[in-house]
Every structure is written in structure tokens, then in C-alpha cells.
């Protein structure tokens, strides 16, 4: 009997869902309910229409996932059930490949199994972690590359809730070596909200708007002291200044970048190590006058950004800037590698894979390489691959796995679950 | 989706914020700087606004629950088993569980030291002590910090803005 496999990458920010064997998921929707100002009800994001007509200005949001983990199974059930019925997926006639973050607590695993088998009646379940799936997909793209030949890589997954550096060996995540930074896209958006609210307009309630601002305008700096100086300049010399227009609720319900060309000017800056240019900048430095930085005006329908554009992604590289007592991404990678057998170190540094939506900031990979090079032994090569689509990479790996001939044997069936219970079944996925 | 059964005033009051209990604790603490820093980090994980939104009056909060009940019953009025789970869920919603609470209950400290766990996977403190500081007002390199709350600033101008508008914002 041929049964369909539903591949569900259940992220804290986005759900990616579709059928095993397909190249792309059928749909990607936010993993939340939201309540726009125009509605008294919590609404489901629409899985079908890509151009959502809803005005999400000041919408409240409820998420089933907190700090990466499923804490509200009831809310998750609502979201899944709406999703499955709109996609015409019959769970009782399907197997499920579900992603789950590393180190999920046993109580959360139990609640997840209940959801899958008791609420949705899936016929079988396989639980996978993101790093091994991202690895699998990259290995499939380059069958003769090092990731594939060594069956080994270091996956950096920088998603919505947190960031992991996780070594993968023989297609399994080495979980005792995985390291986590408690920062992801959600914290970055919230930090951007804070900065803009302090400096220009109160946007504390504008989650969806500020996600858009972050995605369109933030980038990773290759030289923070230099860029801070440039950001203080006035007029055309400030390569970072750009303007974002807020929705007015009448002619446009979404915000937009006022002058996209202006916003791209920072790309003319290339290398960070240019002593001559630095000196020149010191001399030219113009201290910002108060009128350059516009004062808070709640009636204004736009705001300017300058150094916020790179100070936000900067958090991932230096969480200590924010008062977090955690190492930044480069050190996180080194610690993950050092937790593995020394034989693996050279291969891991040579096969770093970036996945997750927060790796989409321009110059993310370049910056990691710059920070890694001085702290990785000279005899090792550092090679970083950004996934072609970091949001879909994990799902695509899941789709590959689900269409492999061994997949069925790897699953726990509903009757096994009923007979053995959650904890015993879970041992099968214990890698 | 569902017919409206909620309090018409909810929309207005849901925008107002009440100081959550941990904020109140922070306020009472003598060590404002530490508390303000912790509250600030906590705030970065919030879904709505900077301070966890808590409905300001109790009736209002109740109407939110009714809302959900209507919603849940529609979805799952099928079996008894689900009803009991739903009852449990409603109970749970009265005291929403955060990941930190679940983590605490899991008692990972009692696991044998060789078993990988959420706690052991944390990357740990940075190795170099060279901490950089940016001005909370304008974002420039900041060499000074506020004596009351520890927020960094770069100049008198930014210090004044800080004092006027945001000092201890995360606490009060
Ligand atoms: Zn300043
Ligand atoms: Zn202060």
C-alpha cells in the first residue's frame, strides 16, 4: 500500500509543509494566529493566497512555540488542523516526517506524539532534526563534494528562535557536540523594534511590519567601527541612511522602502581592512547635528534608519553587546568543532553549511569567515556554503529522506505507539 | 470565522499594558541594574510589544478565554477524550506555561553528566572579556553608562534623552 508522506518543518516562525518527494513545500505560512485591528477574532494566516489582503498593522500574535520549543500543543493543533484541511491532506492516510529542535524536553516530545497520533491519527511518524536534513540536502546537490564524500558537515542553523552550530557525521547530528546561542530572528526583530521606537516612531506593536523592515534593510557589517563612523555622517556621505514608509491604512496597507536605490548604497563598501580609507574617514568625520536625526514624531508616516541596519544582525556575532553572557557565532562554531574527535576538525571547517532564515542577511557568510579565520588553526581550510534557499533547505532534506526506500522502516507506526508509548518509540529516533 | 462573542472593549484595553509580575519583582529589587538587564533580555523573546501584554482588567481577560473556548469547541467537539484534554488545556491556559517553566520541571540537572541536554548545549560565555558598548540612544560607541540602570550612552546629549524618556523603562 502506497501511503503519502507529509513533510512538516514546524518552525517557530514559519511552517513549511508539503509532500515527500516534491522539490518544494506546498505552502509556507507563519506558525501563529494573529488578530488584526480590524478583527475581534484570532485569525489563521491564509495558506493559499500569497498576497494577503489583511492589514496586519498593530496585529497581535499568538505562537505555539516559545524559545524554539512547542509549549502550546492546543494552539498548534488548531494551526495544523486548519492547514491540513485547506491543503486537503488526510492525516489518517499519511505518514508524517516532522522536524523537532535538538534537545526537546521529554514532556514536549510526549505532547508532540499525542498530537500526531491521538489528535491527528497519522499512521506513522518520523522525527528528524534540522541539521541532519540540511546536511542531507547539501550532500545530494554535490554527490562528489566533501560534504557528500565525508558524510560530514558543520551545520549552522540560524532560525527564528535560536542559533545552533551542529556537527553532522554519517548523516546523523552529533548532539553532544551541538552548541546553541539563544538568539534568532525573533529577537532580532524585537531589537529592531526597540531601536526604532527609541529613536523615531513607536513600532513596538508592529511585528509584521518590522519583520519586513529587517528583511529588506538589515545587513551584516564587515567592519563595525568603520561603519559606525560612516553612519554618523550627514547627507550623501552616510551610505546607510534610508527611509521606510509606514502603511497609512488607506492607499497602502503594507510599508515599503522609500528609495530602494538609496538603500543599496552600502554595497559599494567592500573590504573592511583599508587603513587609508579609515584615516580619511576619521578626518572627514562630521558629528551629527541634532536636526540630522529627526525627532520623534508620531504623526510622521516614515522613519529613517542608519546604524540600526547593521547593529541588529550584529547581535548574533556579539551577543555580549546586549548584555547576554554568550559567545558569538564564530566562537560557537569553534566550540562545536572542538567537541568532536580531532580527526573530524579539518573536514568540519571545510564543510560549514548555513541554513535558516536569519542567514539571509547580506554578507552573513563573509563575516563568519572573517571572524573564524583568525581563530581556526592555519592548517585548516575554512569553507562556508550558504544554502541556495536557507528557509527551505531543511524541508527539502526532509522531502528527500521521505522518498528514500528506507523511510518506512525508520518510522514509528501508530500501533507501535499505542503498544509501547511515547518514550519507548522515541528511542528509535535517538541518534 | 466564528461569530463575535467578545467584549467590545477588548480591542481598546488589549493595547494597554500592565506590569507583569517579574517586572514588579524587578522594581522591588535593590539591584536595578541587574534586573533591568535581565528584563531587557527577556523582552527580546516577547511576541507582542516590549513588556509581555497582560490584559488590564480581569473581565477582559475572561472574554479572551471565552473566545478561545468557542473556537476550540468548534474544532473538537467530537469525542469525550478530547473534551477531557480540552478541559485540561483550558486549565493550562489560565496559567500559561512558558518554556522556562517546562525546562524547570524537566529537572535536567539530575541527568547523568554524559547525556546531552538543553542546558549543556548552551554555548557559554564569550572567551574574550573585551566587551563593546553601543549607545542605546544613537548607536555610536558608548563609553559611559547610566548609574541607575546601566544603559550605555555616548554623550551628554544622549544621556539627557535617556534620563528624560527611557531610564528604567524595562523595570517600570
Ligand atoms: Zn549616543
Ligand atoms: Zn538609566
TrEMBL record, chain A:
What's a GO cellular component annotated to this UniProt protein?
Answer: nucleus
UniProt KW keywords: ATP-binding, Ligase, Nucleotide-binding, Nucleus
Q: What is its main location?
A: nucleus
What Pfam family does this protein match (any one)?
A: Actin
Where, subcellularly, is it found? Nucleus
InterPro entries (alphabetical)? Actin, ATPase_NBD, Folylpolyglutamate_synth_CS
List each coiled-coil range: none
GO biological process per UniProt: actin filament-based process
The GO terms this record gives for MF are: ATP binding; tetrahydrofolylpolyglutamate synthase activity
Which family, according to UniProt?
Belongs to the actin family. ARP6 subfamily.
> Know the name of this protein?
Actin-related protein 6
UniProtKB/TrEMBL annotation, chain B:
Q: Which GO terms describe its biological process?
A: chromatin remodeling
The family database entries (CDD domains) matched by this protein are listed as: zf-HIT_ZNHIT1_like (cd21437)
* UniProt GO cellular component terms: nucleus
Give the domain of life.
Eukaryota
| Pfam families in UniProt | zf-HIT
The alphabetical list of record keywords is: Metal-binding, Zinc, Zinc-finger
Stretches assigned to the HIT-type domain: 135-167
GO MF assignments = zinc ion binding
Q: Provide the protein name.
A: HIT-type domain-containing protein
What is the protein's species of origin? Rhamnella rubrinervis
